[in-house]
Design brief:
Elements lengths: L4 H23 L1 H20 L4 H13 L9 H4 L7 H7 L2 H9 L9 H5 L21 H16 L10 H10 L7 H16 L27 H13 L10 H10 L6 H8 L3 H11 L13 H8 L1 H14 L7 H27 L5 H10 L2 H13 L5 H22 L4 H9 L11 H15 L15 H7 L3 H18 L4
Length: about 500
């Protein structure tokens, strides 16, 4: 049988893109994740703007390959934690030209070269490499400029936390007309807000035929959302696929903290085993909420300022937050909401524990953080392996199976049955007298966080707390309102510092 020439060309193109993307990944795994997210989210935005299939495919590829020139910039510059010198910045500014030169060797990529070359031009003419201004900058480059900056701001790095989506949109608005196309900036902000307010109705016209993944190095799975989820869960249970895990330092800290003889130095040694968590902990200690008269530069200095128990909670939060990353902007929006809900549940659980004089307040804080771990990782999986047309279907199917999957995850990670029960039972509404108090506290905290406004569904704000649960926990309805108010205050102060 004679091969179809178009099919042969498409296969060759796919292999070319695979090769180029592998070069990016070898340089820095963060770069590949960033490129994946920029490409995917440019597609969502371009589709919303009404671009043609050809234009969407081109902007997808440009988003995927726009930073390939950074491969030739020394790592000590690209991964430098502090500000760059003028010479270092001038070297970084060469990367669009290097990218163009690399890609110009491949005729199939000729159409995306202007987008690649000009993705760091500024609307007011102060960008690079050519100082193009306004509509002289290719439309695709203006879109990538916005999506690229948005992703950089909303993604965590070792030396800094991620910005909230609202903060990042505020920065885009502030620089509209100077760095960014003001009309596209406004359109992008409206687009993101539509994802935040109507998660069930995102991109109803999207379909697999329009998905540039068909021509890329990555292919999705077929079938309904439920089929994909059930297939993945089965593969995970049988060890055929893996998922990210919490850093070992989290469980080590839980163990160290349970020993009353633990010293500050011993706790510091455990935390220092993870360089990323150490840097982030120091950054939190220097944040406005905790800042003192002197700058903190070591973990040993950070612990006394924060307090030993608060350090335990902060390390748990930093480690947990690392799981809430997503490639697709739709899932990024869901993940941010889910992160805020999980953190609010943790604060509420600790607030309840203090009201009823439970000694293990930080354990309950951590239980609140991980109660929806099944939901977190299922969203993460779907964001990587599928391109759903209905986020409402995504949320409904994840909601249906996340508790049992959460229990499976925590067992596989080595947590004891006290934690497993939290994942399995926190959605319950009727509890026998034999129910563990930790389950009741986290279940109540889950409801309080929704009452405080931290939820995926607007209708959840109207949920009423189970009076039997309030009775079993031993807390008054007035205390529930106080805890919700305290949680709101804490979220406003700390929601974005992790």
């Amino acid at each position: 049988m004679t091969a179809n020439p178009d099919q042969k060309n498409n296969n060759g193109f796919t292999e070319l893109v695979k090769t180029l993307v592998s070069v990016i990944e070898e340089k820095d795994p963060y770069m590949k994740g960033h490129a994946d997210r920029v490409a995917a989210n440019c597609v969502l935005f371009a589709r919303r703007l009404g671009f043609s299939k050809l234009e969407i495919n081109q902007i997808y590829l440009a988003g995927l390959l726009h930073d390939i020139g950074i491969v030739y910039i020394p790592s000590e510059i690209t991964q430098k934690a502090g500000p760059l010198t003028d010479d270092e910045m001038n070297m970084v500014k060469k990367h669009p030209l290097i990218s163009e030169k690399i890609l110009s060797k491949h005729s199939m990529l000729k159409a995306i070269l202007p987008i690649i070359r000009h993705h760091h031009e500024s609307f007011d003419g102060n960008g690079y490499p050519d100082g193009l201004k306004g509509e002289d900058i290719p439309m695709g480059a203006r879109i990538i400029s916005i999506v690229n900056s948005f992703d950089a701001m909303t993604s965590a790095r070792a030396h800094r936390p991620s910005m909230s989506i609202e903060h990042a949109l505020s920065e885009l608005e502030k620089n509209a007309g100077s760095q960014f196309d003001p009309v596209l900036s406004k359109d992008f902000s409206s687009f993101v807000h539509s994802l935040k307010t109507t998660p069930g109705e995102i991109d109803p016209e999207g379909n697999q035929e329009d998905n540039p993944d068909n021509i890329s190095y990555k292919s999705g799975e077929n079938g309904s959302i439920k089929d994909i989820l059930l297939s993945f869960v089965q593969k995970y249970k049988t060890g055929k696929v893996d998922l990210p895990v919490l850093p070992k330092v989290v469980q080590e800290i839980q163990k160290v903290m349970s020993d009353p003889t633990t010293t500050l130095n011993e706790l510091a040694k455990v935390i220092e085993k993870d360089a990323v968590i150490s840097v982030r902990l120091i950054a939190v200690a220097n944040s406005p909420m905790y800042r003192g008269t002197e700058k903190i530069i070591t973990v040993k200095q950070a612990i006394p300022r924060l307090g030993v128990k608060e350090t335990q909670s902060i390390v748990s939060a930093i480690a947990n937050k690392s799981l809430y990353q997503a490639r697709d902007l739709r899932f990024k929006v869901l993940m941010e909401k889910l992160w805020l809900h999980s953190l609010a549940t943790a604060y509420s659980a600790r607030g309840i524990a203090r009201r009823i004089s439970v000694s293990e307040t930080e354990t309950l804080f951590f239980m609140g953080l991980i109660h929806d771990i099944g939901k977190v990782l299922l969203f993460k999986v779907l964001g990587e392996i599928s391109s759903p047309t209905s986020m409402k279907e995504v949320i409904e199917n994840v909601q249906e199976i996340h508790t049992s999957f959460g229990g499976t995850i925590l067992r596989k990670w080595g947590f004891n049955e006290n934690y497993v029960r939290i994942a399995l039972l926190h959605q319950g509404s009727h509890f026998p007298n034999s129910t563990a108090k930790e389950v009741l506290i986290v279940t109540m905290a889950n409801a309080i966080s929704k009452k405080a406004g931290y939820t995926l569904h607007e209708r959840d704000h109207e949920e009423t707390l189970n009076m039997d649960m309030i009775h079993f926990v031993g807390i008054s309805p007035d205390h529930v309102d106080q805890i919700a108010e305290e949680t709101n205050t804490l979220m406003k102060e700390t929601g974005n510092i992790f």
